[in-house]
Amino acid sequence: MFFYGTISLLIQRPATQVERAEWLHVFAGKMMRAMNITTRLEGRFPERGAIISNHMGYLDIMTYAKLHRVVFVSKAELAKVPLLGWMTTMSGTVYVERGKGGEAERARSRIQATAEAGIPIVFFPEGTTTDGSLVLPFHGGLLAHMRHAGQSVTPAWVSYRFTQDNGSDITLGDDVCYWGDEVQLFPHIFNLVSLRGIEVTIHVADKPIHFTTEIEERKEAAAEARTAVMELGGVTEAAAV
């Protein structure tokens, strides 16, 4: 599937954010069908603005992209990963580079241009993945960029379940969700494709977050957004870090 994706990108060369979001939407659909993974959507995607979500693994990205034409925001380091970085760039990912002069304004400009193209922007402010039993503290930088760019921010929750029995030694946290420094990506993928009955659900809130904090209050705004995402997923503060 990645070979197919590389060839199709080389042939099509999508140039606009709309074309790149459409390519990723089609590719993600084919990828998920090839792996026999079922996806469900609860709620409706906003037609523009930002979607802020918990993060459990690489299937999160494929699921969001399959269910709707979206653009993702990522750390600039991803662009440097061989092949994968090129594919994410060609599929429209907006990169944000920390600590570089003028980067904040450039990031807001990219976000604004994507929003004006009528494409929702998805980002994962935990900065890493978890097994879904907890929600890590949110980083406030990307959230501040979204708010500075005048974008509404809608919470969403991604969750997984098995609809078929894969054995007592198989768990969602260890075998479906990609998380933890000790986990190697490609062995994890090879194990994943042997599993049966994986179902991924994206639950999108009915309305954007109504922030009570100023844009400059990054930590407080990040806490508000985290609470909204946790409530959507039914995760209590006692289970959060």
Write the layout of secondary structure elements.
Blueprint: H1 2-12, H2 17-34, E1 38-42, E2 50-53, H3 58-67, E3 71-75, H4 84-90, E4 94-96, H5 103-116, E5 121-123, H6 141-148, E6 153-162, H7 172-175, H8 185-192, E7 198-204, H9 218-233
Parallel strand pairs: 1-7, 2-5, 2-6, 3-4, 3-5
Antiparallel strand pairs: 6-7
Helix pairs in contact: 2-3
Question: How would you explain this protein's 3D organization?
Answer:
It is a single chain. This protein has 241 residues and is an alpha/beta fold. It has a single domain, classed as Glycerol-3-phosphate (1)-acyltransferase (3-Layer(aba) Sandwich), CATH 3.40.1130. It is built from 9 helices and 7 strands. It has helices at 2-12, 17-34, 58-67, 84-90, 103-116, 141-148, 172-175, 185-192, 218-233, and strands at residues 38-42, 50-53, 71-75, 94-96, 121-123, 153-162, 198-204. A 7-stranded mixed beta sheet has the order 1-7-6-2-5-3-4, sandwiched between helices. The radius of gyration is 17 Å and the shape is globular. The mean pLDDT is 86.
